[in-house]
């Protein structure tokens, strides 16, 4: 495979599920610059990170328990911009929890219902896939 940046990559899949990923030099596409061998479990983790089941680029993680964590950015035009987190009633309405807020270079863990939201905030939401999607729909309201 050749990337948009003209980098050549190869992936060799073994029968046991492991993979070897190799990146080749730009000047000499036959010279390997880096090669990484991944176990079957590591390969699956990379596959899940690159193409999660529900195709969300904001997915942080998934688990066998059916929980997901996503980053949801609050628009400056969102209904909740400038309002209290508790006003959203996210947990009551969806079962999902906002466990942290990223604001500029600051992380605010476990925001309380009295936390005032601002456009550009990135909310870390954890719950079932359905709950997180419902929370995103609420947070994206104009």
TrEMBL record:
Gene3D superfamilies: Regulator of K+ conductance, C-terminal domain
SUPFAM superfamilies (UniProt xref): TrkA C-terminal domain-like
RCK C-terminal domain location: 57-141
InterPro entries for this protein: AAE_transporter (IPR050144), KhtT (IPR026278), KhtT-like_N (IPR058776), RCK_C (IPR006037), RCK_C_sf (IPR036721)
Any Pfam family matching the protein: TrkA_C
Protein name from the UniProt record: TrkA C-terminal domain-containing protein
Organism per entry: Streptomyces fragilis
């Amino acid at each position: 495979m050749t990337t948009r940046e003209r980098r050549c990559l190869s992936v060799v899949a073994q029968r046991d599920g492991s993979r070897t990923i190799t990146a080749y030099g730009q000047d000499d596409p036959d010279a390997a610059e880096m090669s990484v061998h991944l176990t079957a479990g590591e390969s699956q983790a990379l596959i899940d990170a690159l193409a999660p089941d529900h195709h969300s680029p904001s997915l942080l993680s998934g688990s066998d328990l059916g929980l997901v964590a996503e980053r949801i950015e609050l628009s400056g035009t969102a209904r909740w911009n400038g309002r209290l987190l508790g006003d959203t009633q996210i947990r009551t309405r969806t079962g999902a929890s906002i466990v942290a807020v990223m604001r500029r270079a600051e992380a605010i863990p476990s925001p309380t219902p009295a936390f005032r939201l601002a456009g550009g905030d990135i909310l870390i939401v954890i719950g079932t896939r359905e709950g997180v999607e419902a929370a995103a729909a609420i947070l994206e309201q104009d």
